[in-house]
Amino acid sequence: MNNLDFGNILRRPEAGALLGLLAVLIFFVVFGGIDFLKPAGTASWLNVAANLGIVALPIGLLMIAGELDISIGAMIPAGSMTVAILSGHYELPIWIGMLGSIAVGICVGIINGLLVVRTAVPSLIVTLGMLFAVQGLTLGFSVLLTGTTSVALSAPDWAKFLFGQFIANSFQVIILWWLAITAIYVFFIHYSPFGNWIFAMGGDKVSARNAGIPTDRLTIILFVLSATSASFVGMCQAILFNSAQVSGGMIFIFNCIISVVVGGVLLTGGFGSIIGIFFGTITFAIVNQGIYFTDFDRNWSSLIIGIMLLLAVLMNNTFRKMALNYSPKKKKGAE
Amino acid sequence: MATPIIELENVDKSFGPIDVLHNINLRVHAGEVLCLLGDNGAGKSTLIKTLAGVHKPTSGTVKFDGKPVEFSSPKEAQEMGIATVHQFGGTFPLMSIGRSFFVGVEPTKGWGPFKRYDRKKANEIAVKAVQDFGITRIDDGDRLIGGLSGGERQSLAIARAVHFGARVLILDEPTAALGVKQASHVLRIVLEARKRGLAVIFITHQVMHAMTVGDHFGVLIKGALAADFRKGEKSREEITDLMAGGEALADLGEEVEEYMASHDGHAPPAKH
Ligand SMILES: Nc1ncnc2c1ncn2[C@@H]1O[C@H](COP(=O)(O)OP(=O)(O)OP(=O)(O)O)[C@@H](O)[C@H]1O
Ligand SMILES: [Mg+2]
To answer: Could you tell me which residue ranges the ABC transporter domain spans (chain B) (predicted)?
Structure first.
């Protein structure tokens, strides 16, 4: 079968995201000029996309599996504060601080996962509780231990090089992490059996369990992935900016969900793709940053994002219907 | 007669204080279709779930090939050859035919950590398995399940069970919500499975469907096995009455008319 057939592309979950990306690219090149695609311009939206994308990917997987994690909003500051307090305030070696950040992510993820699996309380509520709990803990501990809500951190060169440098003075090194992580996800979700299980779980959890899929273990793994990804991003930010604050991160909740939905993931689970989420994240970042290259007031970018989200959902619904009704060509007209 | 594939001995099942099954004794042999009949809430789904490893019996034993077994998960039951198509679900509307056919046991190519899902092989096997059951309209494994008709989905689920070497096939109301033609398709597949030597447990609310494929009938009333008989031992009317929970449906029309005449034309309240 010819995979470049246009109809085949439209039936894929990322179809809407790809068209959306092309649309916003054209829009901003027309209204903002070509500057926005030159290195400095590209860096501005790629940096946003990379930080957002690393968290949006596991959030998208959770949504494909029929769950949601909004505690990531608190995990980003928790991740940066952990490394800053351990290695900045207490002056422990940076790797201890970094392990600390990752460990906090793993712990919170396990607790989220266990609570969702054991209590059958919707994950929106469980992680909403966790969002506030982690936020409170981060604030409480940082005031208790350091007396302030903002802690400085000066990382050694190797840590800067790997996690917090600007390549060519403007591209954050986290972009490379994002690309690598995306490639790993693509393999696991679309080319290994593991991905099939996540789609099955989101399609029908009881049937998936009856088919022998370890749904509880998978759910916990996905929550660990999202919480750890968020604390990783927080950690990288602290190393990059040489300091960490207890606030910030909340905006990631909405931005992730928008990227994922624009990327073609079905809110009720069972449908979506990694490449779609990748395109969705870039699309979001371009709208978010592209506005600075135009003559429009910055406030209009929210309007564009809102319209884009609605259009994306409508478009994705259409494409999904096309995918459902698809049958081999020779059958056409034989209804 | 040969040892039954599955045998239930004095099986009880309760959920906390709620007793759902009482003292069930049943045998199912290879190459025969057992029809489980009974009113809504009689405990049919619960009974087959204890066979499928979803629930554990509260007391009593389940024997497989004459040996007592205890399943700790549906997967264990499946590995022994008990395949179940549950009443609700069992299919993933937004997954492709090939992917959902192999869910949980995906074929792979490559080695070590680079094992990849083998889409081509999965699609080929899935399509061939359904076509072998006479559903020739399915010929592309990339189609999504949600685009198939209800009967095609049931057929796919049955073909899947048979493909994975099931010896016992449990079908919970596979013909519910199907049109006459689609239902007859499913019934034909049940007969084909029986011909291949599988034991089939078939739940239905339709007397016609039960009489078409059943060799052996078990009727559940409020969680107890109220009747256990073989083909030809009871008439259609008797079976219908049993399925309604032992009430004589034959007299229903008369009763309703009498009631309405004496109650200003109101219909009688439902009986429990
Ligand atoms: N997990 C459970 N916990 C408590 N009660 C249950 C559970 N599962 C089933 N029941 C109860 O057991 C009884 C039998 O249910 P079951 O689903 O087996 O009926 P059924 O014969 O399959 O009915 P139907 O024809 O409507 O499918 C019902 O009263 C139901 O409420
Ligand atoms: Mg039932």
So the answer is: 6-247
